């Protein structure tokens, strides 16, 4: 079956501050979304990519292919999950129900080929799909509304969820449709799958596959991308 990348890029980046949506911030000479797309489309096993853009996006450079592969666009929605669902529905007809889709944040520029390769291997072998992540390394505190500690959470079973997150197109589409119908806001694709009873696999990836959310993250991304030699 085929493998397509799906990039939700319809966010306004309001947490970052500033007027440029974060996927269009530049680091090491390219926008974050260009880094994300290049990491995916330069991989030999990825067949194409679909980006979900805001309806009023004037910054998209109009690319229709990259690395010799199709790069398609569609209009995203109000929440990340709405943008992903719009992209899944807009995929070409020859991307069948069993095709693997790799959902990847447009603002996550430092994905390495080795991580992507292992993710594709695990997801291909696992019916419930797989995501990149990393075990939690800090001690975790539960707090009350006044930022007073009320408990220390055992961290040994806890992971951070990264992207890409890889699922069968049909299964992910149904899971996201169900979450939407039930009015549940899912913050990643795995959460939608979990709610259907699936147990996606966690593939330990590099911690420097960071999502740019703050100006400090952008500085770190710049540092990492400038030294990207694998
Ligand atoms: O805001 P956050 O960091 O969670 O966004 C993750 C990704 O989801 C970003 O690439 C952002 O552009 C995308 N997004 C989207 N549609 C929305 C909100 C976020 O495609 N309505």
Helices and strands in order:
Blueprint: E1 3-9, E2 26-27, E3 30-31, H1 32-41, E4 48-53, E5 65-66, E6 69-75, H2 80-90, E7 100-103, H3 113-125, E8 130-135, E9 140-143, E10 149-153, E11 159-168, H4 169-181, H5 189-194, E12 201-204, H6 215-226
Parallel strand pairs: 1-4, 1-7, 4-6, 8-12
Antiparallel strand pairs: 2-3, 5-6, 7-11, 8-11, 9-10
Helix pairs in contact: 2-4
The site of cytidine-5'-monophosphate has 17 residues, from strand 1 and helix 2.
**Record field, number of beta strands:** 12
Which range does the strand content fall in? 25-35%
Side by side, the strands of the main sheet go 5-6-4-1-7-11-8-12
C-alpha geometry: globular
CATH superfamily descriptor: Spore Coat Polysaccharide Biosynthesis Protein SpsA, Chain A
> Helix and strand succession?
EEEHEEEHEHEEEEHHEH
CATH class, named: Alpha Beta
Helices, by number, come to: 6
Q: What is bound: which ligands?
A: cytidine-5'-monophosphate
Q: Please give the oligomerization state of what you see.
A: single chain
Mean pLDDT rating: 95
CATH topology: Spore Coat Polysaccharide Biosynthesis Protein SpsA, Chain A
Quickly give the CATH architecture: Alpha-Beta Complex
Helix content: 25-40%
Round the Cα radius of gyration to an integer and report it. 17 Å
């Amino acid at each position: 079956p085929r493998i397509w990348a799906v990039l939700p890029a319809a966010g306004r980046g309001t947490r970052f501050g500033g007027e440029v949506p974060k996927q269009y911030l530049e680091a090491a000479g390219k926008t974050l979304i260009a880094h994300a797309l290049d990491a995916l489309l330069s991989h030999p096993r990825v067949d194409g990519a679909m980006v979900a853009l805001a309806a009023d996006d004037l910054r998209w450079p109009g690319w229709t292919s990259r690395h010799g592969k199709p790069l398609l666009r569609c209009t995203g929605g109000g929440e990340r999950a709405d943008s992903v669902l719009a992209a899944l529905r807009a995929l070409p007809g020859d991307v069948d129900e069993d095709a693997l889709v790799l959902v990847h944040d447009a603002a996550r520029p430092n994905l390495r080929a080795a991580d992507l390769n292992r993710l594709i291997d695990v997801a291909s072998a696992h019916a419930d799909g797989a995501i990149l992540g990393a075990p939690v390394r800090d001690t975790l505190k539960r707090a009350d509304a006044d930022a007073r500690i009320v408990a220390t959470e055992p961290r040994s079973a806890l992971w951070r969820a990264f992207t890409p997150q890889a699922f069968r197109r049909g299964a992910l589409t149904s899971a996201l449709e169900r979450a939407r119908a039930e009015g549940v806001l899912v913050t990643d694709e795995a959460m939608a799958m979990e709610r259907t009873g699936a147990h996606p696999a966690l593939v330990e990836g590099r911690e420097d596959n960071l999502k740019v959310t703050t100006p400090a993250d952008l500085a770190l991304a710049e540092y990492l991308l400038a030294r990207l030699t694998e």
